[in-house]
Amino acid sequence: MGRKQYCGSSSSESPTEEVVRGGGGEEISIFIRSPNEGTDGEEEEEEEEEEEVDEWRTRVEKRLEVVKKYAMKMACPKRKGLPVDMYNDEEIPAISEMHIEHRPVKAVAIGPYHRGDKVLFTNVDKWRVVRIIAKWYAIDPMGYLTRMKEKEADARMYYSADLSEFNSESFLELLLVDACFILFVISTFEDYADGSWSKGEDGTEYLNLLMDVKVNAKQIKLDLLMLENQIPFFAIEELLKASTNQANFEKNLIESQALLFFDDIYPRRDRDKGIRDVDSPRFHHLLHLFHWSRVPRGKYEFGAASLLFRKTDLTLAIPSATELRQSATRFRKEVSGSFLDITFENCGVMKVCGVVKIPTLHILDYSSTIFHNLVAFEKQYKGSGRCVVAYSACMAHLLQSKEDVKLLRKSGILANTNVNDIDAVNLFASLSEEIGGSLMPDDLHALYSQVTKHHRQWRSRWYGETTLQYCPNLWITISVIGALLLFLLTAVQTVYSVLSYYASLKNK
């Protein structure tokens, strides 16, 4: 009985039948496919992918074109005349279950977590920025989306949530508009400016957006430094890689411009650090860059002993600022290095005195937001060290009351701002609650050990308590010294008078 064999992959087309005889004399029908039949399926898949990309490109170009058409109808800061169906905010679903502990964003939502928040800069504004950035930096938005599609999985790994609410297109478009907005606000555009931007509709739209950014600059900076309001740093870098003018961009351009953008935010940048330092890491996001620029180099890091053998530091503590005065401990303003580095040293005869050196601290209305997000970042990413955690823990011990705050103000450590003394105490008390039970770096253990050892020395305690009792301020100290000098002079005069009397008796 003859049998049939099919050679090649299945196809919708009819194969060609050829009859041959087998070794036993039976007839075998062999169905042979044409040479092109094996690749028809692959070609169809490629055509479908190209059609999807073309449709995606059309939607992106339509959004940019509609943004351009209505650019002149947008008033600042309130936008009027926008087409309702141009870009519906509901296309990007909000993750409403996210709990924003300290402060919601107010100016701009970056990344997926704050997409449902009411902010000043909407998605429409971001697409306007995309059009400007695309023209300014010679970037093809669709080319950027295509490049980022290959890195979509890496980008999603940066977020703890699964982000299943975002399909591939909406997630990549989110990265596009947010990366363009970040590049727009941190750039000065001076190196790439030409006269055309001050003329015509494009120039007017650019100036309107630039004015909006300048008016809300402080709020934008604070929003961009929230841990849950971030996108991967490489998503911003890919914008420049997608440009046709890459030769005009300096190395570390984005990092340099971002640091300048945040330069007026306290705590200020480490005075010994530069973005071109050989030990600068690959940054995960803007908050990571900001954190790196503020912490001291090579300190407050985790060693093997810190991670493997140490338990939580619930009992780690030092006395308050006013209590440390009882052991002849003074506070001095540090003027170099990081603004988040606290050191201690012994001084004086027999090292009876101690000096705690602390850089000037500016506590402002936004300080709580900055410190809480830096602490949250360090707790999440151990590779960043624990500088802010250690600094906050130390300051929480030093500032226990308004008297402690006044002492540090008098020493020039706490700058005079509109924040009162009790608010400064409450700031570090709230930070202390957040970091309670956390592992602390070896540098903080060493600092606490030095301060505690000095505070317990009987010589330091005697000298400190005597000074506080008899010389509590400068004028009393001067009076005591004057009285001692007068006493010594009186004693010398008395001795001289007695000696003169006995000398006169011997001469008689």
From TrEMBL:
Entry keyword annotation includes Membrane: yes
Residue spans crossing the bilayer: 474-499
Database matches in Pfam families: DUF247
Keyword Transferase found: no
Biased composition (Acidic residues): 39-53
Annotated region (Disordered), positions in chain: 1-53
InterPro entries: DUF247_pln
This protein's UniProt keywords: Membrane, Transmembrane, Transmembrane helix
PANTHER family noted in UniProt: BNAA09G04570D PROTEIN, BNAC04G53230D PROTEIN
Name of this chain's protein: UPF0481 protein At3g47200-like
